[in-house]
Specification:
This protein has about 250 residues and is mostly beta strands. The chain folds into two domains: about 110 residues, Cathepsin D, subunit A, domain 1 (Beta Barrel), CATH 2.40.70; about 130 residues, Acid Proteases (Cathepsin D, subunit A, domain 1, Beta Barrel), CATH 2.40.70. About 10% of the residues lie in helices and about 50% in strands. Strands 12, 13, 14, 15, 16, 17, 18, 19, 20 and 21 form a ten-stranded mixed sheet that branches. The protein has a six-stranded antiparallel sheet with strand order 1-10-9-22-23-11. Strands 3-4-8-5-7-6 form a six-stranded mixed beta barrel. The longest helix has 6 residues.
Length: about 250
């Protein structure tokens, strides 16, 4: 089953119809523990105060019995983008999901029948709750630092580090300059740019990946169960397959 997607660039956007209503644009986000729908859109579509056990169509693919949490996704409006929802980990738990950034195509496989290409690399993943985590290595000022990064197709950046990890590794200081960026669920957050020499992911190395750390330990920035997240600025160099049933991600370099 194939679903074409729109690339901003930075995020994966698909059209989604809920209960046969007119389609809306949503991002596909492996870093979301649940799917989200904009509160105002739910009201306009007369979907009621709770959007639960509903039928969903993504492109030509029908997904019955889906739940959404209602959220004020005002940050997309501030960015003047027409995104009104998020498709989260339920999609990745139900199917083996291949994202081909070159063809702008998502392919959904039944877990029982999926077989990876012989030339692909199969990397083990662990889970932080419902979210996939992979092992990487960062090189900063010549020092190699192992980092457990959550694979986040909802993030346009290369790497974002949690504040406790960046502080413990002395990658940030009290007087570092900060920038503000919008996040999917929580709006504007502060970030500190970090100069990383290299990111190593299995056999592949990426020079000077754009990296930042959460500017404060508030919310997601203060988590310690993972060291940060790996976003689309790196993932777009691969055909990425999420195979949760076998606790692996399959990478094919584009």
């Amino acid at each position: 089953m194939e679903i074409p997607f729109r690339w901003t660039p930075g995020q994966i956007e698909v059209q989604v119809s809920i209960e046969g209503k007119p389609p809306i644009w949503c991002i596909v986000d492996s870093g979301a523990e649940f799917s989200m729908l904009d509160k105002e859109v739910a009201k306009a579509l007369k979907l009621g105060p709770a959007v639960e056990n509903v039928s969903v169509r993504i492109g030509s693919v029908a997904l019955p019995r889906q739940d959404f949490r209602l959220w004020a996704l005002d940050n997309f409006r501030r960015q003047k983008r027409d995104i009104r929802g998020v498709i989260g980990c339920e999609l990745f738990e139900r199917y083996v999901v291949t994202i081909d950034f070159q063809k702008r195509l998502i392919t959904l496989h039944e877990p029982a029948t999926y077989r990876p290409p012989a030339s692909a690399r199969q990397l083990p993943i662990t889970f932080d709750g419902r979210l996939p985590v992979i092992r990487t290595t960062l090189t900063v000022h010549g020092k190699r630092i192992p980092a457990r990064l959550m694979i986040d197709t909802g993030a346009s950046q290369a790497v974002i580090l949690r504040h406790p990890f960046a502080t413990a590794k002395r990658l940030v200081g009290d007087h570092d300059r900060t920038t503000t960026s919008e996040t999917v669920a929580t709006g504007g957050r502060s970030f500190i740019p970090i100069a990383v020499d290299q990111l190593d992911l299995d056999r592949w190395s990426f020079k000077s990946p754009k990296t930042s750390a959460y500017g404060t330990p508030a919310g997601a920035g203060g988590g310690t169960s993972t060291d940060g997240l790996l976003g689309n600025d790196i993932l777009q160099h691969f055909r990425v397959t999420f195979d949760y049933s076998r606790r692996r991600v399959v990478l094919e370099r584009l």
